């Protein structure tokens, strides 16, 4: 299996570097500063006890790849960039090769399945940071992360098994899941806080807002008849694979993925695919979702206005949510 990492940033960069140093064939699709830096210097990955720079082959667009039957695409861009990436893949001639959505949220798989027949979900547990172009870091040990993997909408097939084997070789623990979307819906409950951390700062207490956003989501899942894994359930065997570390020598810990988007000055964030997904499901199933709907609006505004993480207080944010965002 050759792995095409589409979207080389914090997650894609960590995975691509891990795979390449393990001898797994990998090609990155990158853009902007990351593309230029990788072409010039390679890709640097730092993790506890690890600092490597690897010459991961990289292209700017899927059309530059001579696609093979044994290719598998790992989508690693944020949800707001998925639709454009899928269009690019279609135009480049991708057919029934498997597409793995290594992304937060639960909307990417459905978007991919609309266009391609062979789609898989991946729950990404990997606290990674896009430091500067060409450099990423991950704050966990002994593994670089742990991914739950399964076919969308359900089941496990040989493509999942091949991807799991490649990831394991590359230092990422991989767990095959018959119902991977239950795992992704559990993870989404954690990611409802991403926008709160972006607004309040990465270390802020998200208070009653975090609890209210999660309660809405659980009510929505129940009304929609959707199962989910409890993301707070502790499993000592899993926990032993990804112990979080607070500090890497000389490497600042920026915070979660939405905080990082604001720090990099992105004009869009992923909130529509996190809190916005709960708002969508609530509207579809007749469940009130005022908190997540307001947070989705606030996320879009934070990015549009170029706010940095920590630009507001919990009291002000609570007031804004009560006013509808
Ligand atoms: N970072 C983390 O700790 C975690 C992230 N996740 C999830 O993983 C996913 C990826 O997040 P993360 O790695 O942090 O995001 P990043 O923004 O760090 O990386 C995504 C990269 O993909 C690039 N990109 C987007 N579209 C394309 C395209 N069409 N072609 C080429 N490159 C493209 C982006 O470019 P540009 O910068 O120009 O937009 C960016 O460099 C998200 O769904 C996130 O929620 C899950 C768990 C933890
Ligand atoms: C759970 C968390 C916050 C880990 O980094 C994440 O998934 C993200 O950054 O989006």
TrEMBL record:
Which pathway? Cofactor biosynthesis; (R)-pantothenate biosynthesis; (R)-pantoate from 3-methyl-2-oxobutanoate: step 2/2
Gene Ontology terms for molecular function: 2-dehydropantoate 2-reductase activity
Q: Which UniProt keywords apply?
A: Pantothenate biosynthesis
Record EC number: 1.1.1.169
Highest rank taxon of the organism: Bacteria
Which reaction is recorded as catalysed by this protein? (R)-pantoate + NADP(+) = 2-dehydropantoate + NADPH + H(+)
Q: Which InterPro entries match?
A: 6-PGluconate_DH-like_C_sf, 6PGD_dom2, KPA_reductase, KPR_N, NAD(P)-bd_dom_sf
Q: Which SUPFAM superfamilies match?
A: 6-phosphogluconate dehydrogenase C-terminal domain-like (SSF48179), NAD(P)-binding Rossmann-fold domains (SSF51735)
Question: Which residue range or ranges hold the Ketopantoate reductase C-terminal domain?
Answer: 205-297
Q: What's this protein's name?
A: 2-dehydropantoate 2-reductase
Q: Which GO terms describe its biological process?
A: pantothenate biosynthetic process
* The Ketopantoate reductase N-terminal domain, residue ranges: 4-140
